[in-house]
Write a structure and sequence with these properties.
alpha+beta, 6-stranded antiparallel sheet, elongated, membrane, MIR_dom_sf, ArnT-like_N, glycosyltransferase
């Protein structure tokens, strides 16, 4: 026996590793290192010269290197089988794929010699299988299997890149390659982002007037809208003790901290004054901010102005009722494990449960509180719970306003964040809110946050007919557009049942097959842009994807035939016969052409007396 074709290259390079002799090659080193390791472990001493094809191996132990490549080539069969099974959820499609691969003479040939191709394809298909398995755990992110398959995908990708890669025209300089990279980054990343951002710039410029969507956005955002009560107004910039303020919750469509004379009903916590969140402007939204241990008249000019700072202990007095914002360990009206928030005390005097620590998100002690821009939390001093709005609507006794609670959970969420919107203090100079308007990047970010929260927060209306995602592919349920009774003009949204059924059959091809088509495309079309010499074996990575696609396509086609002839009692046999025909044809073709893989002697196929004469179907076949 002797080395064949490129065995003279890669066998020699394996010898170099065994002998620790430096060499240069156009491909990364992993494949040659593994060949050398296989030879070393199997007893090969690295002395065979690998000068030219046909030189006899004689006593040199080359079997280990060939066996190693053959083993990796044989692993392609279970890899492709499992990949197709995972993508298509069809056992016959996976079996068809494996059968085609088992009896493909090309893969048998390329896997039994000392070449980089079986090593490359092993890592390539390992990466594909790992990625497919990783995607199957997308609903169980960060679990052990999710991490395992994600890591294995990276390992196999590194392995594939470490064996062989092609960079189009290898004569390109690094500068030219850099230009190509920058061009793609510019056109495929930067340009779409610029256009997308410009779209929102136009959006914000055109929609500059107050409307029904104001309440979904922050106070700062609203201040830029013509017609909004915050537009072009002047208020003091920093909050001082004695200021009259309103607090707006930062959750989507968050209301203003509100109270009124009505009490909580019997059986709902302590029978004290209700505190809620209210979505509209109202005098009952006004609160006076005071020091926790000092109840003085801050309008008296004899007292110096003292600004409220991050970390201060305060109490809030409701301006209309003179009750203090209060919490205690009674359960909230609607939300379990949250504490009730009430109005308590007389003329600003209450108890220690009225004290709150004010904190500005991302600030240090001593920093002032800024109107509109500062995001604050109010932490109850006695229980360490945090003032928040749950978004739940209270019953009629609460005037269907929004529940306000004190949550013991310390996680920072929009529900527990507030900003100061209105600010009245005759002793402080006013500034135009124009200087506090958010910048374009800030309103762009806020609009996306609101959109994301809006999508995740969509709930069905009462008695509204809804559907589930699994309904759609099988046409399980339609949607009434209009009309209910027989006298009504009725429009009903329903997919064409015939087309839907065909699409149901084809979705396996599009879902699983679409990724395989992409894999085939990525491993095939780049060769059209290469200036280097190319050989048939370069197609084999793409051919793996083609074989997997064949298995899925044939399975879908046969299922369609079964459906089309479903009225016939022989319909099921069409599927069985179809699979059997393909398997038998693959096996018979292998029987005819197996000499190409395992070697043959005698006349060439162009000779009529050759045993292969009838198998030369194309003139370009040279065997």
């Amino acid at each position: 026996l002797a080395p064949y074709w490129d065995e003279t290259h890669f066998g020699k390079m394996g010898s170099y590793y065994i002998n620790r002799t430096f060499f240069f090659d156009v491909h990364p080193p992993l494949g040659k290192m593994l060949i050398g390791l296989a030879g070393y472990l199997s007893g090969y001493d690295g002395t065979f010269p690998f000068q030219k094809p046909g030189d006899k191996y004689e006593q040199h132990n080359y079997i280990g290197m060939r066996a190693f490549c053959a083993f990796l080539g044989s692993c392609l069969i279970p890899f492709c089988y499992l990949t197709v099974l995972e993508l298509s959820r069809s056992l016959p499609a996976a079996v068809i794929t494996a059968t085609i691969l088992i009896f493909d003479t090309g893969f048998i040939t390329i896997s039994q010699y000392i070449l980089l191709d079986p090593i490359l394809m092993f890592f390539l298909m390992g990466a594909v299988l790992s990625m497919v398995k990783y995607n199957s755990y997308s609903d169980r992110s960060f679990t052990a299997p999710w991490w395992f398959w994600l890591c294995l995908t990276g390992v196999n990708l590194a392995g594939a890149m470490g064996v062989k890669f092609l960079l189009g025209d290898l004569s390109l300089s690094l500068a030219t390659l850099g230009k190509h990279f920058l061009a793609r980054a510019l056109c495929l990343i930067v340009l779409p982002l610029v256009l997308y951002t410009a779209l929102f710039a136009v959006h914000f410029t055109v929609l500059n007037r107050s409307g029904p969507g104001d309440g979904f956005f922050s106070s700062g955002f609203q201040s830029r809208l013509i017609g909004n009560n915050l537009h072009n107004v002047s208020v003091p910039e920093y909050v001082a003790y004695g200021s009259v303020i309103t607090l707006k919750n930062l959750r989507m469509a968050g209301g203003y901290l509100h109270s009124h004379w009505h009490l909580y009903p019997e059986g709902v916590g302590a029978r004290q004054q209700q505190v809620t969140a209210y979505l509209h402007k109202d005098l009952n939204n006004l609160w006076i901010i005071r020091k926790h241990n000092l109840n003085r008249d801050y309008s008296d000019p004899s007292f110096p102005v003292e600004f409220v700072k991050h970390g201060d202990i305060i109490h809030l007095e409701h301006k209309e009722t003179s009750k203090n914002l209060h919490s205690h360990q009674h359960e909230a009206p609607l939300t379990r494990k949250h504490f009730q928030v009430t109005g308590y005390g007389i003329n600003g005097s209450g108890d220690s449960n009225d004290f709150w620590r004010i904190e500005v998100v991302g600030r240090k002690d001593g920093k002032r509180i800024k109107v509109l821009r500062s995001q604050i939390r109010l932490i109850h001093l006695a229980t360490t719970c945090i003032l928040g709005s749950t978004g739940k609507t209270l019953p009629k006794w609460g005037w269907e306003q929004v529940e306000v609670t004190c949550t013991p959970y310390q996680k920072e969420t929009p529900n527990t964040l507030w900003n100061i919107e209105d600010h009245i203090n005759s002793r402080l100079p006013n500034i135009s809110l124009d200087v506090l308007k958010p910048s374009f990047p800030e309103i762009l970010l806020e609009s996306h946050i609101v959109m994301i929260r809006g999508n995740s927060g969509l709930k069905p209306k009462e008695n509204e007919v809804t559907s589930k995602p699994w309904h759609w592919p099988i046409n399980y349920q339609g949607l009434r557009f209009s009309g209910v009774n027989e006298t009504d003009y009725r429009v009903y949204l329903l997919g064409n049942p015939v087309i839907i059924f065909v699409l149901k059959l084809a979705r396996v091809l599009l879902h699983g097959g679409g990724r395989i088509i992409l894999g085939w495309f990525l491993h095939y079309f780049p060769f059209f842009m290469m200036g280097r010499v190319l050989y048939f074996h370069h197609y084999f990575p793409a051919m793996l994807f083609s074989i997997m696609l064949t298995g899925i396509t044939w399975d879908v086609f046969l299922k369609f035939c079964v459906w089309f002839f479903s009225t016939s009692i022989q319909a099921r046999k069409i599927y069985d016969y179809g699979i059997a025909v393909l398997v038998v044809l693959s096996m018979y073709s292998f029987y005819l052409f197996h000499p190409l893989s395992y070697g043959m002697t005698g006349p060439l196929a162009s000779d009529p007396s050759s045993s292969m004469a009838g198998l030369k179907w194309l003139e370009t076949w040279e065997f």
